[in-house]
Design a protein that fits this description.
By secondary structure, the chain is mainly α. The chain has five helices and no strands.
Length: 131
């Protein structure tokens, strides 16, 4: 078991050295320090909290028009966050790293379970079924 643990640590260290991991960390730091993006995130969190507080009221005390307006403001704030160039880059880097980790997991899972790794292309004609 000690050999497997050692190999797992080596695999983790190898992942830390790959470009996907480095890019993710670089863009995470940028995302956390970009003042405009942080302002947009703060606005979104405030709008979300306001909406959640309103939704916790008794249904009789809720104003549907106001709730709709609050949802629209929260969604607008969310769009500002997600359309910000730094967030777009960070999201893409996060997705690339997750794909790498998933592919490593699928390889390990194949050796443990014998199940072939698969990916869904969206075209079901050659599909063996979703799991």
């Amino acid at each position: 078991m000690t050999d497997l643990t050692k190999l797992a640590h080596e695999l983790g260290e190898a992942i830390e050295q790959c470009e996907e991991f480095k890019k993710y960390n670089e863009l995470k730091a940028l995302q956390e320090t970009d003042s405009e993006l942080q302002m947009f995130i703060g606005e979104y969190n405030l709008r979300r909290m306001q909406l959640m507080n309103e939704l916790q009221k008794d249904e009789a005390d809720q104003d549907e028009a106001m709730l709709d307006s609050m949802r629209d403001m929260m969604n607008d704030a969310y769009e500002k966050v997600m359309n910000h160039p730094v967030m777009k880059d960070f999201s893409a880097a996060s997705e690339a790293l997750q794909e790498l980790v998933n592919s490593v997991y699928q390889i390990i899972n194949f050796h443990v379970t014998g199940e072939e790794p698969h990916s869904c292309s969206g075209n079901c004609s050659g599909c063996s079924g979703c799991h």
